Amino acid sequence: MASSETQTPTEYIQHHLTNLTGNVGGSQVNVDTVLMGWVLGAIVFGILFLISRGVKQDGVPGKAQAFFELLYEFVDTQVKDMFHGNRRWIVAVAFTVFVWILVMNSIKFIPVDLVAVIAHPFAAYWKPVPTADLNTTLAISLSVILLMMVESVKAKGIGGYINELFNAPFHAHNIFAKIVLLPFNFAFQLIELISKPLSLALRLFGNMYAGEVIFLLISLLAAAGIGGVIGGALLHAGWAVFHILVVPLQAFIFMMLTAVYLAMAHEAH
Questions:
Q1: Residue 244 domain-assigned (yes or no)
Q2: Model confidence over 130-153: pLDDT tens digits?
Q3: Exactly one of 143, 163, 167, 203 is catalytic; which is it?
Q4: What is the pLDDT of residues 168-177, one digit of tens each?
Q5: pTM over the 0.90 mark
């Protein structure tokens, strides 16, 4: 790894924001993003599985069990307020999304140069925050929209879902008017389907990527001696405290929109 002392500021930032790429089946893959995302997912959900195996139905639960039960009840309460049917599946998806994104976002709290130092013997580049990669956020968003379409078909049937695509939001009783409105309705439905995953993906990616850039800029200021050691430490601490709010907030927003979209799939226009 080349440190900020031997690189220009531009090279330093580009180095930390460059993914380790590989070729898989003729396609370029961001190896660091895939490995970090899947490893973090395996760790956190492995821990949840182990906790679930030792759940105490009677008596006082352990601290880990109590924490995740509170977290699950929190997600369940949010879903219950917006959906009054059988919400078990929606809660499971929302809880999974919330925990996974929260863990991936939390990697941001690891010092930016520490990850580069650890990765340097094995890889020239290593971008540690999976959600600072648009590929990750877009993949999760598309998965949510696909689940929403599946839920729509389950709730309304294939015929009902196709009917909704071509007969909403504009509805007409006259057969001629219905035919005229078909392409307009489909265009509006298509725009809605495209805008949902884009808004989900870009919101999360934008916040995480911008946070990475600002952490790097603070590191450059500290390396340049601007503000001194204390000033650099205060800037890092201040931005880290701010991100203590941003990291769970972004996971919460993504979780809420996921639950909203899945709940909306059961509603008819």
A1: yes
A2: 999 999 999 999 999 999 999 999
A3: 203
A4: 888 777 788 7
A5: no
Is residue 158 domain-resident? yes
207 is a catalytic site residue: yes
Q: Enumerate long-range contacts of 155-161, CB under 8 Å, 24 or more apart.
A: 155/265, 155/266, 156/268, 160/268
What angle (nearest 5°) sits at the alpha carbon of residue 10, between those of residues 9 and 14? 120
- Residue 227: pLDDT over 90: no
d(CA 132, CA 140): 13
Total number of domains in the chain: 1
Cα(244)–Cα(239) distance, rounded to whole angstroms?
A: 9
Tell me whether residue 5 is in a domain.
no
Quote the tokens at residue 172: 């007409």
Locate tokens 């009783």: which residue?
Answer: 173
The DSSP code sequence of 116-172 is HHHHTTT-S-----GGGSHHHHHHHHHHHHHHHHHHHHHHHHHHHHHHHHHHSSS--
Domain that holds residue 242: 20-264
Element (H, E) at 29: strand 27-30
Active site residue 199: yes
Question: Residue 85 falls within a domain, yes or no?
Answer: yes
